[in-house]
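pipeline/complex-builder :: batch 7 item 3
reading input block
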Amino acid sequence: MLYPVNGKIQPFCGKVPVMSAVEAAADRQIARPSGLAEEVYRRIRADIMSLKLPPDTRVSVDSLARELGVSQTPIREALSMLEANGLVSKKHFTGYATAPRMDRAQLDELFEFRLLVEPHAARKAADAMAESDVESLRAVSGDKAPSHDGFADMDTEFHKLIAQGGGNHLIADSLARLHIHVHIFRSCFRSEIAEEAVHEHDEVIAAIRARDGAAAESAMRRHIERSYGRLRDFIKE
Amino acid sequence: MLYPVNGKIQPFCGKVPVMSAVEAAADRQIARPSGLAEEVYRRIRADIMSLKLPPDTRVSVDSLARELGVSQTPIREALSMLEANGLVSKKHFTGYATAPRMDRAQLDELFEFRLLVEPHAARKAADAMAESDVESLRAVSGDKAPSHDGFADMDTEFHKLIAQGGGNHLIADSLARLHIHVHIFRSCFRSEIAEEAVHEHDEVIAAIRARDGAAAESAMRRHIERSYGRLRDFIKE
DNA sequence: GGATCAAATATCCTATAGGATTGGCGGACC
DNA sequence: GGTCCGCCAATCCTATAGGATATTTGATCC
């Protein structure tokens, strides 16, 4: 297991530090020692999602190596994985760069895909979702959306829970991979769209709690269509 | 640009060799120099798909490095990308291994996904596919399926063309990533199922040639459902 | 004879050094 | 003033060495 120490990432050389129950639950999947590469992967992905690494920005391997205090090898492995997931691109003998911001065509394609898959996942989730996950869903309901980042995290969790609730890992993984790009795109404009979206979320949640598959499907479809409409306005081209 | 030389992969140090027109056209997208990592990636992926590396098999880094005549770094990058695509898995301090063969649950999930996406792609392909690609589609029609591998390649090309014909890169990429696993699964059993599948392919092709979206969608759905039925029989569990 | 423990091996993981290539910058030339 | 050419810096790519760990093998004990 590896832990970041004052900004740096260092090999694990000691006891596992105590961890609160909630932390242990949240980091359950990270708990298995997976090496520096995965740790670096998460770090860079987080920097991309937080726009600390804006779209279309050069990413130097040895700069990262110095900054994180690790060798180049795990950086390369992490960047290779990020490249396979479409978050960075590599040009031979030139280096890595974060993916450029989505253009209109890509946004269209992404929402066509979401519109195809997510309503189906919502319908299945209404039938198959475990009662405990439904409870978790209530937790991300729209009681209050404190900040932009707060809503973004809530939105991510909302869609992740429903995608997983469908019981199909392939669908959940595909949607998670895509949602990252939605997150980045939305963050680029800091739009304050929490109000409507939260209401739409609640409609989906209500349908799932009522175990009404058809209602969940149509509510999710409506939510994605409106979300698409809100985001589309930011692109003129 | 990098070229394999008698089994080994070596850095490019000379003129680009002459290449026939068809080769140049086929390798157009490979023509840009992308480094050893990508070359190694293709090589390993090909070995996995050809079952030269069977499922659930250990893959040693420095064995590969010696075999291919390159350093460990590009091997690691290639394996990281393969891991991100789900073709190998890494266990800390234990090494890489090819993904185990799909079990029943994974097969179900995969075909649920295909059934959700591919008929939609076929419908769009019937509307939007370029005439030249429709012509390419005829080329992979069922004139003759010489061998098992011949049919496998034809099937891969068939589904790839239709997925791309829909015009959505995300859909095409997702399906391509999944189809690799279908290919591996089918190869594990060397089933002689070419006859029926080729007939079903032709039905889809006919519908697309007629620009009949609804017919293409239902024909593709039928094809995938039957394909699922044929493959499901191989799993008893 | 079976089980347990310890050493040895093979492998991975990390770090550092050296070679190769691209892109940008400045000066010279037309 | 515009264009072309050569140099320099930054970066990537490769190779090798050393430390750490999991697995396997063998011997010893019960």
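note: The first strand of chain A starts at residue 3 and ends at 5.
queue -> next item
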